[in-house]
Specification:
6-blade_b-propeller_TolB-like; 6-bladed beta-propeller; glycoprotein; signal
Length: 314
């Protein structure tokens, strides 16, 4: 479904939700679902606040396994990076313990990034609350301190801190809750896109943090973004997913305008009241090779929905 679009393009972006895609075994449940990634084999990794913090699903939605009990309280940002030799790793952020870590797909921790070495900015560990992470083609690691000091940090592939930018404020070069980020490594030079959530915009930078452009638009509370083809797909915490062109002009919104995000109980809306063809609080998403959209939501029980382009099955 689409809520609306422009220039007649919305008709090309109609989707149907696949009911009960994620099949959980009896006795296993998830918490707030915050992140999602897919590996080369098609397995989906769901980062959530439970003892099954990294929950792994087969392409058909069957639960496979889990790990990551240590992230039960702080699971937040997640990305998957494939290195030059083909080995894949998961990078995660922990808002409770103030750390970023690199793991093998089966959970072995191989790199840890603690509080950035800036004692004037981070006089105590709890001042650092990283919300998202992504990795450039050269291995540089970018971290959004979205719940702490509103900085974006850059590290090299070995975890050596290199620089930071942003910080609290309302100026053009300042950020107000840089909640999510995505590194577009498809061009000659990577571009770092940041979801500046409370400013309701996106900001783009070059690999060394030079500000390129601020992108404003029809956004309520954008959490993150993913690029696929010449489109951006944006999970908006206030009840919808937006699809934009390369200039952040909205083509379509997915999710019926039911206003659940204005309900005093939000996000703890009872599952019986979850809209079948809409959202409560989209937090992250993934677009697979077939154009299916997987959306995870910030609700206490966790929620994962798969959306199929109209006319497709699977």
């Amino acid at each position: 479904m689409t809520e609306h679009g422009q220039d007649g393009e919305a008709a090309a972006y109609t989707y149907t939700p696949l009911r009960d895609w994620a099949r959980m075994p009896e006795g296993i449940s998830l918490g707030y679902t915050h992140g999602i990634a897919e590996d080369a084999a098609g397995l989906l990794y769901i980062f959530n606040m439970s003892v099954h913090a990294v929950a792994i699903f087969a392409p058909d939605g069957q639960f496979v396994s889990s790990w990551g009990e240590a992230y039960a309280e702080g699971a937040h940002g997640l990305c998957l990076h494939r290195e030059e030799n083909g080995t894949e790793y998961l990078y995660v952020t922990d808002i409770a313990r103030g750390r970023v870590a690199k793991h093998t797909l089966d959970g072995e921790e191989v790199l840890t990034l603690g509080v950035p070495p800036l004692p004037d900015i981070y006089p105590e560990p709890r001042a650092y609350r990283p919300t998202d992470v992504d990795v450039a083609p050269n291995g540089d690691i970018y971290v959004a301190d979205g719940y702490g000091q509103y900085l974006v940090h850059r590290y090299d592939r070995h975890g050596q801190w290199l620089q930071c930018w942003g910080g609290r404020g309302d100026g053009f070069d300042k950020l107000h809750e840089p909640h999510g980020l995505w590194v577009d490594g498809r061009g000659v030079e990577p571009i770092v896109y940041v979801a500046d959530r409370r400013h309701r915009r996106f900001v783009s930078y070059d690999a060394e943090g030079r500000l390129l452009q601020a992108h404003e638009g029809d956004f309520r509370l954008p959490c993150d973004l993913v690029g696929a083809g010449d489109r951006f797909y944006i999970p908006d915490l206030n009840g919808r997913v937006s699809i934009t062109d390369a200039d952040f002009r909205v083509i379509a919104h997915l999710g019926e305008p039911d206003g659940l995000w204005q309900d005093a109980r939000w996000p703890a809306i009872p599952p019986a009241e979850w809209p079948e063809r809409g959202f409560v609080s989209p937090h992250a998403l993934h677009v697979d090779r077939s154009g299916h959209i997987y959306v995870v939501e910030w609700v206490p029980q966790g929620r994962i929905t798969k959306w199929l382009p109209t006319g497709r099955e699977g």
